[in-house]
Amino acid sequence: MMNSAYIKSFLYASMAAGMLCLTACDDVKPDDRYIEGEPIAAERAVLLEDFTGQNCVNCPEAHEVIEQLEEQYGRDKVIAVSIHCGSFGRPVSSTNFERGRVYLMTDEGNAIMEAYGITSFPMGVVDMGSPITMDLWSTAVRNDLQQQVDVTIDLQTAYAPDETDTDSEWHGAIKVSSKIISGTTRNVNVQYWIVESGIVAEQRSLNGKIPEYVHNNVFRAQMFPGLKGTATTLADGIETVVEGEIQTRWNDKERWELRNLEVVAIVSDNTGVLQVTRKPVIPRDEDNADEGEGTETEE
Hints:
The chain has helices at 59-73, 107-116, 137-145, and strands at 24-25, 46-52, 78-84, 120-121, 123-126, 151-160, 173-182, 186-196, 199-205, 208-215, 218-222, 230-234, 240-247, 261-269, 272-280, 295-297. By secondary structure, the chain is mostly beta strands.
């Protein structure tokens, strides 16, 4: 279960020169935002943490870079999570649904930002490495996709309804179980993040305010405390099961749309992310809901 304690000792000393400008919203030339490379055979999935905010006028351009990377390599290979935080974020505590004010910054997101020492936006972190500006994301993602890995994650998700659930409100629990196998014995950390797409809320851009901007891959919460999550040991070739559970949030400040929720599972060690995957909480229209494929709704 979640709590408010966070490990803030994961500081990253290697920063690109001139990258961090206190509370700046970085401007990047259009030609530098995304560089498409030659096709590669992706050996693994890559985690891209996008540090963003609804008041960051350059952040929509960073979101476009993410969409391009997802299109090139696939959403199953580029696992992007947009973390609303910092001076350009708008806190969920100020949300007023009746007035159409939907805000996305959480205390958990701010704790992740502080763990990396980020003060400039938009900024990204690939596989829990050092923060980099969005003109470097494409190269970093491409490089990590080509790395060999010996860790696999079989992620299973389920939703346990609450008796107060309705057709449009969800108060139940999201349950997660991963079967993790490593080719070597190693100490790792496992974290589960809740991510939501299709959130319609205001966003500022270089062209002014966008009242009905569609926010995707939005970080909502994490199941285990700390940036990297719960510690465990993986034995060579032996399946390790890690389970987690979290209550959905449907209140006057946050309304998680169950059909748009995904779980992102991250296995990492002191070198960074070893493997990452994602799965919808419940099957979507394009998924084979009859077969389930590991995702089921509990009655």
